Amino acid sequence: MLFKQQALLRQKLFVLGSLAIGSVLYLVARVGTLDRLQPICPIESRLPPREPEQIPLRTLQFKRGLLHELRKGNATKEQIRLHHLIQQLPRAIIIGVRKGGTRALLEMLNLHPAVVKASQEIHFFDNDQNYARGIDWYREKMPFSFPHQITIEKSPAYFITEEVPERIFKMNSSIKLLIIVREPTTRAVSDYTQVLEGKERKNKTYHKFEKLAVDSNTCEVNTKYKAVRTSIYTKHLERWLKYFPVEQFHIVDGDRLITDPLPELQLVERFLNLPSRISQYNLYFNATRGFYCLRFNIVFNKCLAGSKGRTHPEVDPSVVTKLQNFFHPFNQKFYQITGRTFNWP
Ligand code: A3P
Prior knowledge:
It contains 15 helices and 10 strands. By secondary structure, the chain is of the alpha/beta class. It has a domain of about 200 residues: Rossmann fold (3-Layer(aba) Sandwich), CATH 3.40.50.300. It has a 5-stranded parallel sheet with strand order 3-5-2-6-7. It has a 3-stranded antiparallel sheet with strand order 8-9-10, with no helix packed on it. A two-stranded antiparallel sheet has the order 1-4. α12 runs parallel beside α15. It is globular. About 10% of the residues have low confidence. The structure holds adenosine-3'-5'-diphosphate. Belongs to the sulfotransferase 1 family.
């Protein structure tokens, strides 16, 4: 009897043990394959050929471990010295466009082991006071990184601020510039929604979008309204082209980044000469948020803050059409200059 019970116990322990070992093996295999998943990559002829793999595999572990500690301020000076961590000027900047999806783009690119993001908008080039503090001030705002990694900053005000192209050119004339755009009328409404929310928070009243976007005297589109002007992408881009050749820009489709982010991110990886490391595993659709969220690893996921993905107010359809007609010729020019065409009305 005793012998029978012991045999039963041994059998149960064996099954439990096998299950535990099986789970551990599965987790190890799953984590191990994350880096190797090679997603399908649509190729744009304008993009450079992929360079040979240069990023050591160890980087991912370091990035998730040490750099995370650094961000929290827990890493010691000794660790910084030991691992040759440095604060580097950005080699790529997301210069705009406001409400185009600049935060989502930065956060998603940060999934790449060779990319390190500057978490805050630094506003170095568009703010005279900050600019007067000099380039070392700017560098000190950058996160620590390994020498082979690239730092990326985003400040969407750069795109529309007069002085910025020249200032960035003076820092680095070969810098890579990312512009994320959305259908211009939608972007303008998104811009309006953000300002409206700010006013409401301060218990202030605000005009309706229709009143701001259309001049009530002429019934024409009000080009003095900032949300309208910002959506005339070609006007701003033309100022940048006085300093940088078109090849130094990459246009990201902000509407597609919402619905299907991976192909857009893969195009950016190529533009930045990075091996393709962001995979479908890193992005999952969160039905509650209604947006894609980020998966860094088995334990760490995150969605963007609630301020991203606001509900837009309903806009009079005749005003929408008026704006779409207004933007149409500017959009055509934008397609022509950039070589990237969108299905905007
Ligand atoms: P809406 O709030 O109008 O929906 P920015 O970061 O430049 O301010 O852009 C904000 C926009 O990013 C949001 O505009 C949202 O649609 C878009 N976006 C793109 N991908 C997103 C994501 N994964 N999560 C939340 N917002 C995202």
